[in-house]
Write a structure and sequence with these properties.
- The protein is α/β, with parallel strands linked by helices and 431 residues long.
- Among the domains are: 34 residues, no CATH class; 133 residues, Leucine-rich repeat, LRR (right-handed beta-alpha superhelix).
- 28% of the residues lie in helices and 22% in strands.
- It has a 14-stranded parallel β-sheet with strand order 1-2-3-5-7-8-10-12-13-14-15-16-17-18. Strands 4-6 form a two-stranded parallel sheet. A two-stranded parallel ribbon has the order 9-11.
- α11 packs parallel to α12.
- It is elongated.
- This is F-box/FBD/LRR-repeat protein At1g13570-like isoform X2.
């Protein structure tokens, strides 16, 4: 009450703190708000009326065009209206834009938005298009000279002949897109600062060569015959799930087992599936005891669907182990097939009596273990050769035709000699 009287006596109007906020503070507030709420700030005061039109970050998704009791327009119409307002009213650069139109089947105006963004300093672009017939990405995307992060989902990419480079691009993420292997290879090689790549391509590819001097992270999940690395001295994380492209048959790729790892001197974390291993092995006459070069940086190794009963798969595993003196973690997901176990058992027995030591290995994770003789011999070998092993985690796959029960497997493993007194064997019973 006293405060009100003082204001009346003095004749002063209460100060408009909101309107007098520093420009940077207003910009930060609007950037943190959803676009709908940012537009609604226009009613706060006359000075705030057009502040939203200068927001450098935009997020467009179904929350903006879903039907409400107050507005029953179709999503397609509402989306068109929103784009018209943005293209006609927005001022200044747009550095980041995320668009998810997965619920819209027809949106021809999207070409105009992409063209608008390409002329307004876009740096971070994240577009998720509808499933079904793939949206053909306009060539204006490839004129964004300031692009630093590009994420695309469900679209068709044709690299234009005039494309020179994304000279500033750091991150490239392509999910369920259609692109030729040659265009993909050129796109990667034309990004000299590229550090992070995630690829899931819709159509099978023949082969790609990754030429990226600054790349550090590479994830690849699609059907392809061959993946090669060239000029990748900093690449430390590689995850490749190639999938079967030839219905079980294996063709020789462009690079073999030794060439593949020879281009990865900084490799720290490696995750490969069965098919790429087979492709790499197909390119050599005999799997070496160890690689010509040591993988001095490799700390984690994971092999998916490895055939423990196949001699070549086991030789490949131990070649990598011997070539990685500082390996700390090994993970394997076994694929049990009915092969000739004798060659593998003889190989593992010879290794058991060899002078091989796993001096840095602290953790082993084995999945889909059913208690076959090769599996048990491999477990026995790893326990006997790992001087610092702390944990061996086993996820069993016990089926009716399995040779042993879970209790029998555990009993047998507990009898194995362990090089490290700290080793603990743990089971995760998912049955």
């Amino acid at each position: 009450m006293m405060e009100t009287k003082i204001m009346k006596v003095s004749g002063r109007e209460p100060s408009d703190i909101i309107s007098n906020l520093p420009h940077d503070v207003i910009k930060f507030i609007l950037t943190c708000l959803p676009l709908r709420d940012a537009v609604r700030t226009s009613i706060l005061s006359r000075k705030w009326r057009y502040n939203w039109t200068k927001v450098p970050k935009l997020t467009l998704d179904s929350r903006l065009w879903k039907k409400t009791k107050q507005n029953i327009s179709t999503p397609r119409v509402k989306f068109a209206v929103i784009l018209f307002q943005l293209l006609s009213l927005h001022q200044g650069p747009i550095t980041e834009c995320g668009v998810s139109i997965s619920d819209l089947k027809d949106c021809p105006e999207i070409d105009n938005l992409i063209f608008f963004l390409s002329r307004n300093g876009i740096e971070h672009l994240d577009f998720k298009f509808p499933k079904g017939e793939k949206y053909k990405l306009p060539s204006s995307v490839f004129t964004c000279s300031h692009m630093r992060h590009l994420t695309l989902k469900y679209c068709l990419i044709n690299l234009p002949p005039a494309f020179e480079a994304f000279s500033r691009l750091l991150t490239l993420e392509l999910y369920e897109v259609t692109i030729s292997d040659k265009s993909l290879e050129n796109l990667i090689s034309c990004c000299p600062k590229l550090e992070h790549v995630e690829l899931e391509i819709s159509v099978p590819l023949n082969s790609i060569e990754v030429n990226a001097p600054q790349i550090r992270y590479f994830y690849f999940g699609t059907k392809i015959n061959s993946v090669c690395f060239k000029n990748t001295p900093l690449l430390d994380y590689v995850y490749i799930v190639m999938q079967d492209i030839n219905n079980g048959s294996v063709e020789r790729g462009k690079c073999n087992f030794m060439e593949f790892f020879g281009s990865l001197p900084a490799l720290k974390d490696l995750n490969l599936d069965y098919f790429i291993i087979k492709t790499l092995i197909a390119g050599i006459d005999e799997i070496p005891v160890r690689l010509p070069m040591l993988l001095l940086c490799l700390r984690q190794l994971y092999l998916c669907e490895i055939r423990i009963s196949e001699l070549n798969d086991i030789r490949c595993l131990f070649c990598l182990i011997r070539s990685s003196p500082y390996l700390e973690k090994i993970g394997m997901e076994a694929f049990n097939d009915k092969g000739d176990e004798l060659p593998v058992l003889e190989y593992l027995e010879a290794e058991y009596h060899s002078d091989m030591k796993l001096n840095q290995l602290t953790k082993v994770c084995l999945k889909e273990i059913s208690g076959t003789k090769p599996e048990m011999e491999l477990i026995k070998l790893l326990l006997a050769k790992s001087l610092k092993l702390e944990t061996m985690l086993i996820e069993p796959c016990i089926e009716p035709e399995s040779p042993q029960t879970l209790v029998e497997i555990l009993k047998q493993i507990n009898e194995f000699q362990r090089a490290s007194p700290r080793t603990k064997v743990k089971f995760i019973d998912e049955v």
